[in-house]
């Protein structure tokens, strides 16, 4: 039995010769063995002495079925994929410092796979809302991404004014009146190492996403997630490492947490325990994406009377009014 490994072709040999003394309790055999070419077998199984079988290789695909694409063919595939998988969001324009310009063809809105933001998560991002042809709080958000980049030890690809000009021009090229501008600063492409020392230069990407939907004040339910929270160092920077957030959202969806079921005397910023939070008269989620969204239930605890509260409605109205008619310090006009 120990000679079976040696009798197999090299590309099918499962056990090096030095391990063949362990084969006394293993039976290695191909089922319906059909050698088509190197690197491809129909099926190979390992059977233990207890007659249990476990599939090791089960592949009917030939390597020749995987095409070698030219650059033009790859671009055509990107276009076909974009046409076949249209989502709810419309991507109107993208800036890439790798391209050195702005593109409006969604199929070409790609970034290099060797960018350290892709394979190491070494990047930061931020978002600014587009409302009635104005960028809301753009300068405040630029300040934040610069702060995040500093925390992530990423050198800015351009000075602040150049970044601002690029972002405004990208929205201008998009012709988007209502939506959002999302932008990233990454360590840049270069290699697949851990350290960014091999990166050519940091990169800036920006994309304009159209969104004509109205902001929803409908109350939602939330659940306590089993996913550990990010440490403060990472929770206070807008890094692209959102896996804990993704897993928390998926867990809430699995528990059907994110489903449907509105004056302030003062504001206190403090640590709040879960028990204290669940006793709140009113609760809401606040962010640049959702603006203000009332929470009507946390786990099994109904918040307040279980309805959207008046403070949530008041805050949302204030923010929308500021977005539509606020001072020039928070509204940057887009020169379409």
Automatic annotation (TrEMBL):
Domain of life, per lineage: Eukaryota
Entry keywords, A to Z: Aminotransferase, Transferase
GO molecular function: transaminase activity
Keyword flag Zinc: no
One protein family per Pfam: Aminotran_4
Gene Ontology terms: biological process: carboxylic acid biosynthetic process
Family note: Belongs to the class-IV pyridoxal-phosphate-dependent aminotransferase family.
Name of protein: D-aminoacid aminotransferase-like PLP-dependent enzymes superfamily protein isoform 2
Source organism: Theobroma cacao
């Amino acid at each position: 039995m120990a000679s079976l490994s040696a009798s197999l072709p090299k590309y099918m040999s499962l056990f090096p010769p030095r391990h063949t003394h362990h084969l006394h309790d293993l039976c290695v055999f191909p089922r319906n063995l059909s050698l088509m070419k190197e690197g491809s077998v129909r099926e190979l199984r390992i059977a233990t002495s207890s007659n249990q079988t476990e599939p090791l290789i089960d592949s009917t695909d030939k390597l020749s079925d995987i095409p070698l694409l030219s650059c033009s063919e790859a671009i055509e595939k990107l276009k076909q994929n974009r046409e076949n998988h249209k989502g709810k969001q419309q991507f109107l324009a993208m800036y890439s410092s790798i391209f050195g310009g702005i593109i409006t063809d969604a199929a070409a809105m790609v970034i290099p796979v060797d960018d350290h933001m892709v394979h190491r998560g070494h990047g930061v991002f931020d978002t600014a809302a587009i409302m009635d042809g104005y960028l809301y709080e753009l300068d405040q958000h630029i300040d934040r991404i610069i702060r995040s980049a500093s925390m992530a030890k990423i050198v800015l690809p351009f000075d602040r004014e150049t970044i601002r000009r690029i972002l405004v021009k990208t929205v201008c090229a998009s012709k988007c009146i209502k939506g959002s501008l999302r932008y990233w600063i990454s360590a840049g492409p270069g290699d697949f190492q851990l350290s960014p020392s091999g990166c050519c230069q940091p990169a800036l990407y920006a994309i304009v996403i159209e969104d004509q939907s109205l902001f929803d004040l409908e109350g939602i339910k939330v659940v306590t997630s089993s996913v550990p929270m990010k440490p403060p160092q990472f929770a206070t920077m807008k890094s692209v490492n959102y896996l804990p957030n993704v897993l928390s959202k998926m867990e809430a969806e699995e528990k059907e947490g994110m489903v449907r079921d509105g004056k302030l005397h003062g504001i206190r910023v403090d640590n709040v325990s879960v028990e204290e939070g669940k006793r709140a008269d009113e609760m809401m989620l606040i962010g640049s994406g959702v603006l203000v969204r009332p929470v009507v239930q946390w786990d099994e605890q109904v918040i307040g009377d279980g309805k959207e509260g008046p403070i949530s409605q008041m805050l949302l109205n204030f923010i929308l009014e500021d977005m539509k008619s606020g001072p020039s310090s928070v509204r940057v006009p887009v020169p379409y």
